Every structure is written in C-alpha cells, then in structure tokens.
Amino acid sequence: VRELAPGMQANLWGYNGQSPGPTIEVVEGDRVRIFVTNRLPEHTTVHWHGQRLPNGMDGVGGITQPHIPPGKTFVYEFTARRPGTFMYHPHADEMVQMAMGMMGFWVTHPKAEHPLIEKVDRDFVFLLNAYDVEPGSATPKIMTMLDFNLWSWNSRIFPGIDSLNVRQNDKVRIRIGNLTMTNHPMHLHGHEFLVTGTDGGPTPKTSRQYEVTTDVAVGQMRQIEFLADEEGDWAFHCHK
C-alpha cells in the first residue's frame, strides 16, 4: 500500500516493498550483482534501461533470458561501464507491471574527475510515472495507455511531494526519468538551468544552453543543473 498523497492510498507492486524501487547508486567500473526474487503472482524480469551490458543481462523475457517464475530468483551481474542516470523496470508483462508501479532509478557516479561532470551540493532524482485509479478504488487499472488520472513524481502526487530544500547558492542537480506514456516539459521557476546529461551520458559543453523548460519524452532521462541563487520558494513542474 503506497500513500500517493495525504489521505489517498493505492495498492501497488514494487521492488523491496516500495514504488519506485530503491535508487541504486554505484561507481563507474563497479562489478554489480543483483539477486531478483519474484514474489509477484506472475512471471517478471528486470531491464536495466540505458545500460551497456552483456546481452544475457538485458532483462527482456523470452528474448535475452527466460522469464523469472513466481518464487524463483534470477541473478543479474554486469559492470557499470559508464557514468550517468538510468532506470530499471520489468520487460515482462510491462503494461501491467509498470502500471502497478514497478520501476526505479539507477545512478552511476564517475570513478575519477570527469571533464563533463561537475561536483554539486545537492543531487535529486525524480521518476515520472502515472496511474489510473478510479474514485473509490485503491488498485490501478492496468489496461490504460493514455487515460491516466494521476500523474506522479516518485509515485507521489501534489501536495504529497517533498520539497527540494537547498541553501542559497548551492549547485543543484536534478535527474528526471520518464516512464509515463507521454512527454513532460519540465519547467523551473526563478532560475535558468543547463541540460548536462541525457540517456547517452553527460552532454558536451558545446551543446549546452540555458533553459527554463526541457522536454522529457517517453523512456528518456534528463539531467539538469543550476545555481540556486534566488532566495524563496520556487515551483518546479510539468507544463502540460
């Protein structure tokens, strides 16, 4: 049971009992081993969205591996080859399992100083997801492609979303992943930001320009950075 907002709960599926699942943080070059035990009433897999890895670790049921049956465990093991912001989610019965909240974030930090990755004071991650929960119900409808009625950040909806608290003049990084079924133009008030990373990793400095809104399409990740030099409470939201 996940509290989407004060007084509103939903019955979700997740990883380690939560939706989104835990944010996995590793360092570039780390050898990572992940044991996935399936406690769902159906088969599943885990796809490591955006990662460079061996084909057998990509997590697409029926193509790169057998599905993980209920009660069974599959071990994923690969090297975190490049720094960046990634996601993970099922690649088995995706429409049902993602509609029920199964998704999470993965961050690979650089091993040494990187010419395109600067140090920041605060580093936030937000996973954009959506649900279709009818009034009076607590279980999402699972055959919805477009008609969602709850648009959430980390499976929370306003006003149940925590504020991003930083000190004036902090250098701030926000990592955004979109696992909804539409694009989201993310808009920050009172400041300009640079898009410093995408699905493919850090962006070249020659390609960066100051923005106040950046579009995050379906299945994409975007990393923005800015100097929080304006005092006050500033809105940050999707502009659709």
Account of the 3D structure:
With 240 residues, the chain is an all-beta fold. 2% of the residues lie in helices and 39% in strands. The strands form 5 sheets. Strands 9, 10, 11, 13, 14, 15 and 17 form a 7-stranded mixed β-sheet that branches. The chain has a 4-stranded mixed β-sheet with strand order 3-8-7-5, with no helix packed on it. The radius of gyration is 18 Å and the shape is globular.
Unreliable stretches, pLDDT < 50, 5 or more residues? none
Q: Structural class of the helix and strand makeup?
A: mainly beta
Mean pLDDT, rounded to whole units? Answer: 95
Binned strand content = 35-45%
Helix content: under 10%
Main sheet summary: 7 strands, mixed
Question: What is the structure about, briefly put?
Answer:
This protein has one helix spanning 94-99; strands at residues 2-5, 8-10, 24-27, 31-37, 47-49, 73-79, 84-89, 104-109, 122-131, 150-153, 170-178, 184-188, 193-198, 201-202, 210-211, 213-216, 221-228, 236-238. By secondary structure, the protein is mainly β.
